[in-house]
Design a protein that fits this description.
single chain; mainly beta; 12-stranded antiparallel β-sheet; 14% helix; 46% strand
Length: 235
């Protein structure tokens, strides 16, 4: 199963937006073994990226000498406190131990199941958007605080067939009787004169989507290879 996140967060001191777009994370389960595949971008900057001896990290192509994407795998046995991470570098796997609690604390989306209804939310519409998808639209009147979105969209898939037991919300799935596959929360612009921070807060979004990925044979072989290495090391 795949998870895509697009989370724009705001610095409450300056109003600066940080666009934390993550590449697709793949979750796989084999018996009681859980595997996460993350895509990691490696960037090598050129001399144009340095100013006053400090590197200016950004996506300006004039500052990038080369970039590459590689996969990092986190794999562990259910109910165990530690697992192994694998990266394929220089024709060999680099293997490290990690804390499962730390991984899920740093990236709680991986754990799943936490999205839920809110007593301050108001359902304003429900519509069939085609291909088996149902969308519910919620607003908050009045918006309780700056931490609340102005609008939230919940998207459900009536045709969800994945055998994975991962969920964005155990409660919402149970109440609605169909699979919640996307949560999109929209935060409108807050003008400077209405902002308690004294700065304009730009429009931002928090979006999480799960889907059934079509993996290539090479990707499936890579995942299977990590499973086999992990099981051999556990013996």
């Amino acid at each position: 199963m795949g998870i895509v996140t697009n989370i724009k967060t705001v610095d409450l001191q300056t109003g600066t937006i940080f666009d934390n777009k993550n590449d697709t994370v793949i979750i796989s389960k084999l018996g009681d073994i859980i595997l996460y595949r993350k895509s990691i971008q490696s960037i090598k900057y050129n001399k144009n990226a340095f100013k006053d001896g400090q590197i200016q990290v950004n996506n300006d192509p004039k500052m990038i000498e080369s970039s590459a994407i590689f996969h990092r795998f986190y794999i562990y046995k259910k109910d165990q406190e530690t697992g192994k991470s694998y990266e394929f570098q220089d024709k060999a796997y680099v293997i490290k131990q990690f804390s499962v609690d730390t991984l899920l604390l740093d990236d709680p989306i991986l754990k799943g199941g936490n999205a839920d209804f809110d007593e301050n939310s108001i359902l304003v519409s429900k519509s069939d958007i085609g291909n088996g998808y149902i969308r519910e639209t919620y607003t908050y009147k009045p918006v309780p605080s700056a931490n609340y979105p102005d609008t939230t969209f919940l998207t459900f898939d009536k045709n969800w067939k994945s055998r994975m037991d991962y969920t964005l919300s155990q409660n919402i799935d149970k109440v609605r009787g169909i699979k919640l596959v996307q949560v999109s929360s929209i935060f409108n612009v807050v003008p400077k004169n209405k902002s308690s921070l004294g700065v304009e807060i730009p429009n931002r979004i928090i979006d999480v989507k799960i889907f059934e990925p079509n993996l290539s044979k090479a990707e499936l072989n890579e995942i299977n290879q990590v499973y086999q290495k992990f099981k051999l090391e556990k013996k």
